[in-house]
Amino acid sequence: MTTTIAISTDIREELKSFGSKGESYNDILKRVLAIAKERQLQELLLDESDSVSVRDALYRAQKRWRE
User: Fold this and answer.
1) What is the mean pLDDT of residues 21-34?
2) Threshold 0.70, pTM exceeds
């Protein structure tokens, strides 16, 4: 199944620059989306905002064990 999407000429030209000779827009978009998903996963896995250092974790564990 195919569908048509409206994009500006500027975006179409940028999209072309990501492609290789003979590659369809579908192929280019599929590859770009795969890269974006991989990057999103990397950012999620490397996010340290809810983490504590190993040293802090050990300190907390030892403190609880002593109580």
Assistant:
1) 94
2) no
